[in-house]
Amino acid sequence: MGACNKVHLHLYVPSNPSHPALLGPAGQVVAAYLVHLLARVQNDDYSQHGFHVIKSDLERFGAFLGLQEPSRHDIADFLSANPQIKAQGTKDRIIKEILACWHWAVDEAEITDWTYRRHRSDWRNGRHRRNGSDWRR
Q1: Closest CA to 126 of 73, 64, 68, 88
Q2: Cβ(6)–Cβ(42) under 8 Å?
Q3: How far apart are CA 69 and CA 111, in angstroms?
Q4: Which partner for 14 in 19, 25, 54, 113 could form a disulfide, CB atoms 3.0-4.6 Å apart?
Q5: Mean pLDDT computed over 40-61
Q6: In this predicted structure, what is the pLDDT of residue 29?
Q7: Residue 80: what pLDDT?
Q8: 97 in Cβ contact with 56 (< 8 Å)
Q9: pLDDT-based confidence at 47, cuts 50/70/90?
Q10: In this model, does residue 19 exceed pLDDT 80?
Q11: Average pLDDT, stretch 66-86?
């Protein structure tokens, strides 16, 4: 008999099994994305440290949303609700992690609606973009 190549994948288990990050629609997207990233870690295609950082940030974002449906203002609201996130680099990283999660979900047909479309400076500052004619004043 020939040798078998076995890949051992571990099921993604949240830090807290009753974690609210997994209860709502956004939490389900987060959980599916983390399973995908964990498979990449197992294949040495993604760092374990990077996985743990993203896992922590996305679970906090999922917990923030809870059972509500995702809306366009979630990222700005999340950053505003977490004043301990002060460094611009940290804010940018979290925005990129959230966007990567939703991009992946759309690409994998996990979801059909792309919720987060606004310019990232709007998420950072929690404001709406001005109309182009407002700049001439």
Answers
A1: 73
A2: no
A3: 12
A4: 19
A5: 92
A6: 85
A7: 93
A8: no
A9: very high
A10: no
A11: 88
Instruction: Indicate the angle between helix axes 74-81 and 88-107, nearest 10 degrees.
Output: 150
- Contact between residue 77 and residue 126 where contact means Cβ atoms under 8 Å apart: yes
Q: Which amino acid belongs to residue 2?
A: G
Residue whose structure tokens are 């993203």: 54
In three state form, how does the secondary structure of the chain look?
CCCCCCCCCCCCCCCCCCCHHHCCHHHHHHHHHHHHHHHHHHCCCCCHHHHHHHHHHHHHHHHHHCCCCCCCCHHHHHHHHCCCCCCHHHHHHHHHHHHHHHHHHHHCCCCCCCCCCCCHHHHHHCCCCCCHHHHHC
Q: Which structure tokens are listed for 115?
A: 């919720």
Sequence-ordered alpha helix ranges (H) in 82-133: 88-107, 120-125
Two tokens, residue 113: 């609606």
Q: Which two tokens stand for residue 123?
A: 């998420």
Decide if pLDDT at 8 tops 50: no
